[in-house]
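Bit of a strange request maybe. I'm writing a small parser for structure token strings and I need a real example to test against, not something I typed by hand. Could someone generate the tokens for this chain?
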Amino acid sequence: MPRDRTDDMVKQRVMQFLDERGVQFTGPDVVTFSSPGFDTAETLQHVTVNVQIPAEGNLLIASQVFGDLMINASVTMRKEYKNLDAP
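Reply from user aminoacidic:
Good idea to test on real output. This should exercise your parser:
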């Protein structure tokens, strides 16, 4: 991941990715971060990004059977660069 990425920038990119693929989701909490997130992690610390979407409307089979089931995915990355000071 390039330098200067923030939690908000990563969240916006994930939501854009989901939109481009027609994935249905609601609310801003679809993307969450471990503590620390990209905003506060030190160089070489791990950051986990979690994505949670409803099963209903996102499965090829009749998803009404699953009720309120949520689909979760996460990825852990190592922050390779320190945050640069804002100009």
